[in-house]
Amino acid sequence: MVVLSPTDALASVASTAATSATTEVAHTADGSVAYRILGHGSPIVLITGFGASMDEWAPAFVDQLARSHRVVLVDNAGVGQTASLPAPLSITAMADQISALMASLRLGKCAVLGWSMGGLIAQTLVVTHRGQVSRLVLAATQAGTGTALPVPAAAATTLTSGTPGQVLALLFPADQPLALQSYVKGILSYPGFYLATPAAKAQQNVAIAQWFAGAVPAGQDVRSLRLPVLVADGTVDALDPVSNDHQLAHLIRGAQLTRYPDAGHGFLFQDAGAFVARVDRFLG
């Protein structure tokens, strides 16, 4: 672990592989936040999902994105070296913490990509800190109006089982075993691979439930957004029913919707080449 000032952190960025990027810590008004930076170009902040750490971004996906962008990976509240936030944890508080990191790193107005729960955080971030986000990519995520369909019961049971292999298998269709194998091999290549603790996941569940209930004001205010938004998912996402993608895209004025055939919640890793190319075009 290395602690750098915001200026030193950005100045030290090198074109390096995701698995060798150094974990750094920013000390913000919302506590310490762990992050990694790699690549060159316009910055894009990646916010990960439920129970995940920075190590669950497939290295091949991050490396491809880093060819054209300065990629900023971040651990959510209570994960890794990122400080926990007061209970009950909320999506709004997590968004505020990431906003504090972005300000500390002096990223200016930049793109944000949120995957799964990270998409809830990203939506809240752009609503509550509009001056920090230029373009928004929402991957396999849901609207917060109280009308999104929840994770199907069988998948939800598996997700909370604590069995890593079964949980990871939810990210890919059953007929795509090579995609799953490639993903697992990639994330296990991170030195010291880690996940969120059971306590952190329990807090995240509380925050997610509030979002699905429509109890987070930003979830209702997303319909007022006026910035470029890309909504993307796989066509057979076991965790996010297909209707949620259409609902979210229709909720945000002018949002673009892209879906990947025979891909699931981990579509951005299964179809990394196509998705990164789509993101590059979207970001211009």
In short:
With 284 residues, this protein is α/β, with parallel strands linked by helices. Helices cover 38% and strands 17% of the residues.
Write a structural description.
The protein has 284 residues and is of the alpha/beta class. It has a single domain, classed as Alpha/Beta hydrolase fold, catalytic domain (Rossmann fold, 3-Layer(aba) Sandwich), CATH 3.40.50. The protein is 38% helix and 17% strand. It contains 12 helices and 8 strands. The chain has an 8-stranded mixed beta sheet with strand order 1-2-4-3-5-6-7-8, sandwiched between helices. Helix 2 (59-65) runs parallel beside helix 12 (272-283). The longest helix has 15 residues, at 198-212. It starts with 5 loop residues before the first helix and ends with a helix. Mean pLDDT is 93; it is low at 1-15.
List keywords for this structure.
12 helices; 17% strand; disordered N terminus; alpha/beta; single chain; eight-stranded mixed β-sheet; Rossmann fold; 284 residues
Poorly predicted segments:
1-15
Estimate percent helicity: 25-40%
Sheet having the most strands = 8 strands, mixed
Mean pLDDT, to the nearest integer, reads 93
Supply the CATH architecture.
Answer: 3-Layer(aba) Sandwich
